[in-house]
From TrEMBL:
Residues 12-214 form the NAD-dependent epimerase/dehydratase domain. Pfam families: Epimerase. GO terms for molecular function: aldehyde dehydrogenase (NAD+) activity. The lineage of its organism: Bacteria, Pseudomonadati, Gemmatimonadota, Longimicrobiia, Longimicrobiales. One of its GO terms (cellular component) is cytoplasm. SUPFAM superfamilies: NAD(P)-binding Rossmann-fold domains. This is Nucleoside-diphosphate-sugar epimerase.
Amino acid sequence: MPGSGERHVIFGTGPAGSTLAELLASRGKQVRCVNRSGRASLPRGVEVVAGDVLDPMNARQLCRDAAVVYHCANVHYAQQVELMPRLASSITEAAARAGARLVVLDTLYVYGETHGAVMTEDTPMAAHTRKGRMRAELVAGYLEAQRAGRVRVSMGRAADFYGPRVLNSALGERVFPPALRGKPMQLVGNIDLPHSFGYIGDVARGLATLGERDEALGRAWLLPVAPPVSQRGMAEKIASQLGQPARVRTLPRLGARALGLFDSFMREFVEMFYQYTEPQVVDSSAFEQAFGYGATPVDEGLAATIEWYRRREQQ
């Protein structure tokens, strides 16, 4: 197990990378976060450096003294198919050169449409979208690098995020700020279908576990999720905690297509809209049985999220 004096390098300071950095720092780890700007709101003691991860030499320099490398980096939705493979290659090679473990934050995109079937680690990767096929190809590459002995790798596959710092999500800034103002929350697709959501604190804790445990290596794990709740159900829970009725409005597929005429994110999001027109149910029991803990209860996660957004609204 990596010791507390060893360096943990995190690529990306989005909600997952930042929450992971905060967690690792609280455990006494030396944490270096890498992003494009060299700036991030993180606890004192976390080193934040600017880096061009698409430059393999730069990535290798940033990982030179790492015991564990976490790939939480992302790019604009419209650039994912082009740039994510380059990021994966650069970070994998950098971790390999350092002799570090590599932990990759992965998505459910690799499964494609499941028609409501429960997703487990044994669910076939049958991606039918551009971004899903790209992600599946990256998974194959990571596993081949592990089999070839180039790098020790594990992947944490997360459901839709919610929680502090999470803005760009089905349960993000289009939901919590309007609710705090007593306005309708904007939900997506069929809001009455069961849907698994990953609390960002559980995502971070799961990634940290994968960085520690030898039995995590060489495979993907579905990170802990609480029992599924529909989007409407989540909205009702949020409203209940705020002591008000749940007011919602829904973005249908046609609405997303129309917004895509003017918004590059929405234009790219349309192909992933199937996630909100069929049940998205994740079974994370394999992780829970292997590592001995499960997900944060939804009501607890929502309370922390509401409090974070309330502080943000007051700034």
